[in-house]
Amino acid sequence: MFEQAAAGEARNPIGDWALRGAIGLAFVVFGWEKFDAHSMWPQFFRDVGIGQWFRYFTGVVEILGGVLLLIPPTAVIGLSMLAVTMAGAALIHIFVLGHPGNSVIPLVFFVGLGAFWFSRRNRL
Predict the structure, then answer these.
(1) Is CB count within 10 Å lower at the N or C end of the chain?
(2) Cβ(41)–Cβ(34) under 8 Å?
C-alpha cells in the first residue's frame, strides 16, 4: 500500500486542477477583500497595529500566491507563500490580538496547504 504512494504514481490531472483552482480562486478573493475599505479588514489591521500598508501587502501576497498556485511549475511556491501567510495570521490572532480561538481557521488553512504542499514538493 505505501509502496505505491512512495513510487510517485501519476496524479489525476483533473482533480489536481480542480483543487488548485479552488484554493487559488479562494485566496485571490481573500486577497482582493483586503483592498475594500468598507470590509472588516481596515479595522482588523488597525487592531494589529502595524499599519494599513500591511493590509495591502497581505492582499498582494494572497493574490499572488493564489495565481502562482494556478501555474503548475509555480504551484509549490504559491502553496508555500499561502501557508506562511496563514501561519502568520494564526500567530497574530494568538499573540498580538490575544484571541486564540480566532486562530482556528487560519490554522486549518495552514495544515491543509501544508499537506497539499507536502504532496507536491517533489514535483518541481
Answers:
(1) N
(2) yes
Break the chain into its structural domains and give their ranges.
13-120
36-40 long-range Cβ contacts below 8 angstroms, 24+ apart: none
What whole-number distance in Å separates Cα of residue 113 and Cα of residue 41? 22
Rounded Cα–Cα distance for residues 33 and 9 (Å) = 38
Which amino acid, residue 97? L
CB distance 62 to 30 below 8 Å = yes
* pLDDT at 3 > cutoff 70: no
CB 23 within 8 A of CB 116: yes
Q: And the C-alpha cell for 27?
A: 485566496
pLDDT band at 7 (very low <50, low <70, confident <90, very high): low
- Read off the C-alpha cell for 108: 486549518
